[in-house]
Amino acid sequence: MALGKLLAATAFEVAPRQDSDFEGGIIGRLRSVEAGLARAATKGHLETGLPVSLRLERNRTCEIREAALKAAFGTKAELLAKSQVLAKRLGLAMDGRSDVSLLIVSVHQGTGASRQVCMWTFPRGQVLLRRGATINLGDAFILESNLRKAALLSGANNRTGFLTARVLDYQIRGDDRRAADFWILEFLDSRPQMSGPEGTSRFAAVLRVANNKLECSPEEQGVLHTAIAAIRTHSKKRWSIADFAAELLPTGNARTEVLKASKLDDERNAVFELDVQQFDRLIEYRVYQLDNGIRVSAPFAQVGEGVRIEESGHRRRLVATGLIQTERLSRNG
Amino acid sequence: MADPAHPHITVPPLTADQQQLADAFGARQPILEALRESLEDKARQALHEVPHIDRLSFRVKDRASFARKCRPVGKRALYADPLAEVEDQVAGRVIVFFSHDLQVVEERLSTWFTGLVEATKKRPERATEFGYESDHYILAIDEHLKPAGWYEAGSMPTTFELQIRTLFMHAWAEPQHDLGYKGSSVTDEHSRMLAWVAASAWGADRMFEDAWMAINAQASP
After folding, report:
1. What is the predicted ipTM?
2. A150 and A16 both lie in a single domain
3. Rg of chain A in Å (alpha carbons)
4. Which of B191, B199, B190 is nearest to B171 (CA)?
5. Which residues make beta-bridge pairs with A220?
6. Taking a C-beta distance cutoff of 8 angstroms, is the pair A125, A145 a contact?
7. Which of A50, A125, A230, B147 has a CA between 20 and 30 Å from the CA of residue B59?
């Protein structure tokens, strides 16, 4: 859902660990920021951002949901008060390495009785201009700034609205765990909707489908298997199916089949924590058919260990080593 | 007119208002069915290899029952936008063997379904009463499970319901629900009979649990 008409907005400067006396207020000239926010949302693909679910306590409350509901459906004074609550939350979630940020809370008209609330962080710059009771942002500010993070909540003013959010966070896939967790886990007190176990399971299922589709194309299957082997030992732990395709399968049919096997955008783009042990259990075996009729089935974890592939020109030779534990006769091989 | 869920019970036909809502609900039924399938598939994967699961199923609410719930005759309508607000339009149920399995299933599901909205352990209000028991959960519908056409369908739910029960909780709840349709024809004596069944079901669960613990304690060195 695209951002609706801007109804109100606040802006506050927030420094790491700051918990009071925030500089900022209600934005007076909405028109000066509306186009910039819309553009930032489009550029960052906010409407298809990572879906997260808020961690709710009894009676469906949490600070973020309560603040968003009051901002969306309350008075200007409530929007101001709740924006300061959010500013404090952000200050406490930021660590000493973060720069001072500008937190913007914007309220938009949704469809029917629904509203949208968006929380944005931008680099500060010298942008806050006080005009009596309200503040203005320098006109070009948003157009020139790089959006750092955003979260869009929406719904009606009832029990089922504002339970989830769409999030933009360029650091979530990074190796720096603290930076990766700060926006979603600490500030928003949320969890990605695609959990590690589910994501790993869906990912393995998608790879199985893609692998079967590539059955008649051993070379492309080989490309897929190389990418699977690479992700198992990759330093990055958070992936999406789309990330896997983009980073480890830059071109070719293997990439196409992986993306085709995951039909919905939200599934393809959902970031999850890859559980390598679970992944190995689900993917389990790589099967090689040799030119002399021998068929080798090897657990993925053994490829490169007990099962070695030696390359010579265009030919690949397989060497398997291990102690025989059982032996049986089979009609079909 | 017979209720499809309870064919021996005759229910009055839908009013025009109810019919209109039932039709609106019915228009989105294929999308809700696709969601039901995805939710059930996800729950099955989550509970794979978890022992003591008797059954797991999801259903889409019957359209007439939805309309009657939202537009009760002679009463104030409960929802401003029922197509978005009613939380059991798609609902699932997991039936387990033993009382301790309730927590095992809850913990496993919570690692897969991250959007817990509400958890209610439904038990009789007073310690001296026996009656309906079931663990009810409201969960956010994950975006990646929303089928094609979801965002174009207008008002859609944001949540679904999940119930976890033991076999004996279920054994009491389902027939009781069916009998509950009789409404005013249920006398105090009938209520007392049902309370006895509820107490027996509670006792059976307790005995099963104690037996399970005792047998397992004996089996461990």
Report:
1. 0.89
2. yes
3. 25
4. B199
5. none
6. yes
7. A50
Residue A66 shares a structural domain with residue A129: yes
Burial class for A56, CB neighbours closer than 10 Å (0-12, 13-18, 19+): buried
Pick from B37, B116, B142 the residue to mutate for testing the A interface (most A CBs within 10 Å). Answer: B142
Tens digit of each residue's pLDDT, chain A (333 residues): 789 999 999 999 999 999 999 988 999 888 878 888 898 899 888 988 999 999 999 899 999 999 999 999 999 999 999 999 999 999 999 987 788 888 999 999 999 899 999 999 988 765 666 666 777 776 556 656 677 899 999 999 999 999 999 999 888 777 667 777 889 999 999 999 999 999 999 999 999 999 889 888 878 888 898 899 889 889 998 999 999 999 999 889 999 999 999 988 899 999 999 999 999 888 876 777 888 888 787 776 676 778 888 888 888 888 988 888 877 675 544
Q: With an 8 Å Cβ cutoff, are A160 and B148 in contact?
A: no
Q: A16: which 2 tokens?
A: 């790491």
For residues A90 and A211, membership in a common domain is answered with no
Residues A327 and A218 in one domain: no
Same-domain status, A21 and A151: yes
- CB–CB contact A163 B159 (8 Å): yes
Q: Are A60 and A181 in a shared domain?
A: yes
Q: Quick check: is A1 in a domain? A: no
Pair A288, A265 in one domain = no
C-alpha A250, offset from chain centre:
20
B-chain residues within 8 Å CB-CB of A160? Answer: 84-85, 87, 157-159
- With respect to residue A258, please indicate whether it lies within any of the assigned structural domains: yes
Residue of B nearest to A192 (CA): B114
**Can you tell me the distance from the alpha carbon of B221 to that of B208, in angstroms, rounded to the nearest whole number?**
22
Q: Tokens 């949320």 identify what position?
A: A190
Architecture per CATH, domain B2-219, reads as: 2-Layer Sandwich (3.30)
Out of B81, B87, B117, name the one closest to residue A156 (CB): B81
Whole-model pTM: value is 0.88
